[in-house]
Amino acid sequence: MRHLKAHRKLGRTSEHRSSMLRNLATSLINAEKEHIVTTIAKAKELRPFVEKAITLARKAAALNGSDDSKLREVHLRRQAARYFHAGNSTFKIASSRFRGKKGETKDTIERTAGVAAVKRLFDELGARYKDRNGGYTRIIKLGRRSGDNAEMAVIELVDNPREMAAKG
């Protein structure tokens, strides 16, 4: 019997599995075309993982602009950050990219992928799915991979810009 055994182990330890799901979620949210190619088992595990994060962004998009709602949005952002890897900013010196007057350089702060994913999730995707009650992702089967015969799939966000442009 499979009582209380809700998820696939994917042949990994729990830390490795959660790290892999966070990486896949970050890749899906940050992807320019809003889709990634992975195995069917990973895609099926990733779907509820990503949809819970999008639901948090949707809740934040539905808030009005009061002081209490700002606190709630911060709380929702912190909850959503659990679905991505550490969201610290990294400090990089961009001397080769920017040259000011007399050879001076400008220091820039570059965001990590997790911070960029949370920002995009709340700024763009929360508003896009504001009126949708779930089902933010779609899994399309691709066939088998030639190397190890694993079943492959594309997991993508529904109502992405490419799809909306094709509709008309």
Descriptive keywords:
5 helices; two-stranded antiparallel ribbon; 50s Ribosomal Protein L17, Chain: A; alpha+beta; globular; single chain; 168 residues; 3-stranded antiparallel β-sheet; 18% strand
Q: What order do the helices and strands come in, and which of them pair?
A:
Blueprint: H1 14-30, E1 35-39, H2 40-61, H3 67-80, E2 89-93, E3 107-111, H4 113-128, E4 137-144, E5 151-157, H5 161-167
Antiparallel strand pairs: 1-5, 2-3, 4-5
Helix pairs in contact: 1-4, 2-3, 2-4
Assign the CATH superfamily: Ribosomal protein L17
Strand content: 15-25%
Mean pLDDT level: 87
Report the order of strands and helices. Answer: HEHHEEHEEH
The total count of helices amounts to 5
* Cα-based radius of gyration, to the nearest Å: 19 Å
- The assigned CATH architecture is Alpha-Beta Complex
CATH topology title: 50s Ribosomal Protein L17, Chain: A
Largest sheet: 3 strands, antiparallel
Low-confidence stretches: none
Quaternary structure type: single chain
Number of strands: 5
In terms of structural class, how would the helical and strand content be classed?
A: alpha+beta
For the record, the count of structural domains works out to 1
Query: Portion of residues in helices?
Result: 40-55%
